[in-house]
Amino acid sequence: MAPVSSVVAGSAPRPPADSIGVLGWLRTRLFSSVLNSILTILCIGLLVWIVPPLIDWMILDAVWSAAPPEVCRAAEGACWALLHEKARLILFGRYPYVEQWRPLLAMTVLIVAIALSCNRNFWRPWLAGVWAGTLALFGLLMWGGVLGMTYVENTLWGGLPLTMILSVFGMVGSFPLAVALALGRRSRMPIIHALSVGYIELIRGVPLISVLFMASFMFPLFLPSGVKVDELLRAQVAIILFTAAYLAEVIRGGLQSIPRGQDESAKSLGLNYWQTTTMIVLPQALRAVIPPIVNTFISLFKDTSLVAIVSLFDLLGSLRLALADPLWRNYFIEGYVFVALIYFFFCFFMSKYSQYLESQLQTGHRP
C-alpha cells in the first residue's frame, strides 16, 4: 500500500522573492508595466537634473548670515540675508517695530487655542470660554491702549497676524451662515428657498476681488453722511459672505447624500424638523463632506492675499512692501520661497488634520 503523504499544518508555499519587501514594492509601484518603468526613469532623471543645482543654490552656495546686498551680489546662491533684514516687516507688516512683540504673542495665543480645538478630548463647553478669552486677549494685544501699551490702529496691522485674523474669523463666521443657506436651499418654503438660491448663485457668480471692491469702495457710498465702517471689518465681512456661499453648496451636497430613510425614521420616533436636522441629518452630512469643507478653508486661507486691493497688507502684501526697497528688490525669489513655506505649513496642517478627523469620525462607516 502506497504511503499517504500528509501536509504539515501551517506550512504554505512562500511567495516569490521579487514580490515582497523592497523589491516587491518597487516592482508593484514603480515598474509594474513598461509605461510605468519609462515614467519612473524619466522622473529619476528629472530629479537628478534639478535637485543638485537647487541644493547648491538654496544651501551650499547661499548667504545665510546677516550681510549687505553687496555680499549677496558676489555670491552664487540664495541671499537669505534678506530674511535677516526684512523678516519682521514680512511677518508683521507696518505694525510699529518696537511693539511687534504684541502681534507675536497674539499669534501664539491664537495658535494655542486652535491646537486645543483640534483635540477631540477638549470638545467641551468650556472651550467656548477659552475662545472668548483668546479673542479678547488677541484684540487687547493688537489694539493696545491699556496697561501701558500704545494704541495701534488696525490700518497698521499686517503680515501673518492679519492673514490669520481674516482666515480664522472667515472660517468661523462663514460656517453657520453656510449651514443656514444650505438648509434654506433645501427648504420647501418658497421665499426662503428663493432667497437662499439667489444669494448663493449671485455670490458664486462673481470673484472674491469684486466682493472686496464692493465692500470697500461701493458700500461706503450708500452710508449716511458721517457714518464710517472700519476697512478691516468690511473686508472681513466680504470674505465671510463669499466663503459662506461656496461652503453652502458643499454642505448641501452632504445633506443630499443622506438617505431619506434617516428622515423617515426620525419622524417615526416623533422628532420634529429641527430635532431631526440637528441631531441626525446634519451631523452625518457634515461628516461626509469633511474633505471639501477643509478644501474650502484652505482656499480661504490663500485668498486672503486679495485684500491688497483694499490697501490691507497681509503676509503676501507685506512681502511686496519689503521688496519695495531697491537694495533688496533683486532677491524676490528668496522672499517668495519664505512666504510659500509659511502658506504650505498652514495648508498642510489643515489637510492632514482633515484626514485625521475624517478617520476618527467615520468609525464604523467604512467597510
Taking the alpha carbons of the first and last residues, their distance comes to 51 Å
How much strand?
under 5%
Mean pLDDT: 86
Query: What can be said about the biggest beta sheet?
Result: none
Globular, elongated, flat, extended or rod-shaped: what is the shape? Answer: globular
Indicate the CATH architecture of the largest domain.
Orthogonal Bundle
How is the CATH topology of the largest domain named? Answer: MetI-like fold
Q: What is the helix content?
A: 55-70%
Order of helices and strands: HHHHHHHHHHHHHEHH
Unreliable sequence segments: 363-367
The level-1 CATH class of the largest domain: Mainly Alpha
- Please compute the radius of gyration using only Cα atoms: 28 Å
CATH superfamily of the largest domain: MetI-like
SS-based structural class? mainly alpha
Count of strand segments: 1
Task: Provide a descriptive summary of the structure in words.
Helix 9 (208-218) packs antiparallel against helix 10 and helix 11 (260-268) runs antiparallel to helix 12. The longest helix is centred in the C-terminal third of the chain and has 30 residues, at 332-361. It contains 15 helices and one strand, in the order H-H-H-H-H-H-H-H-H-H-H-H-H-E-H-H. Mean pLDDT is 86; it is low at 363-367. It has helices at 21-29, 34-60, 69-74, 81-92, 101-118, 126-143, 159-185, 190-204, 208-218, 231-256, 260-268, 273-288, 290-303, 315-322, 332-361; one strand spanning 313-314. The two termini are 51 Å apart. The chain is an all-alpha fold and 367 residues long. It folds into two domains: 69-95 and 152-361, MetI-like fold (Orthogonal Bundle), CATH 1.10.3720.10; 96-151.
